[in-house]
Design a protein that fits this description.
Layout: H1 9-19, H2 27-36, E1 42-46, E2 49-57, E3 65-73, H3 82-92, E4 101-106, H4 111-124, E5 127-134, E6 147-153
Parallel strand pairs: 3-4
Antiparallel strand pairs: 1-2, 2-3, 4-6, 5-6
Helix pairs in contact: 1-2
């Protein structure tokens, strides 16, 4: 596991696209994350390919929060705790040393993500509280599910 670099942007975009579950953002957004937010993003690499990616950042008005935008795991590496290990790796980084809460938004139908984050809270010995964050009416086209905010913490 390592910090991403801008050279990873294309591979990260391809990984997220291959999940067919996560919202695919522009390739430019993954380049930005890799260049400007690399201390709070994680690349998991295996045999020279990107097997997993976590995008995260500190919201400007909430430095005590680490917001996880996406966790992507290549299909060949699923069910081996890669997502969990990347999240724990992120939380152990110096850039997250003052983080008291981890926040994530999740679609209600993404059961794998729900399970991952609830299990993370259990393994960290803390709570996971959920509330509505973005109702579906805020998304264009009426094709997007609501996004539920999960707040894990306080982190030890």
């Amino acid at each position: 596991m390592r910090f991403p670099s801008k050279e990873d942007g294309k591979g990260i975009w391809e990984l997220v696209k291959s999940t067919r579950v996560l919202d695919l953002n522009s390739a430019y957004s993954y380049l930005l994350l890799s260049k400007y937010f690399n201390e709070t993003c994680v690349v998991a690499e295996a045999d020279g390919i990107i097997a997993g990616f976590v995008s995260a950042f500190h919201p400007p008005q909430q430095p005590e929060v680490i917001f996880v935008w996406q966790v992507a795991v290549d299909e060949a590496f699923r069910r081996h705790r890669l997502g969990m290990n990347m999240l724990k790796h992120l939380l152990a980084r110096k850039a997250c040393s003052n983080s008291r809460y981890l926040e994530i938004t999740v679609n209600p139908s993404n059961h794998a993500a729900y399970n991952l984050y609830r299990k993370l809270a259990d393994e960290l010995g803390t709570s996971c509280v959920e509330e509505e964050c973005f109702p579906s009416r805020l998304f264009p086209g009426g094709q997007h599910e609501e996004e539920i905010m999960l707040r894990i913490g306080p982190l030890m």
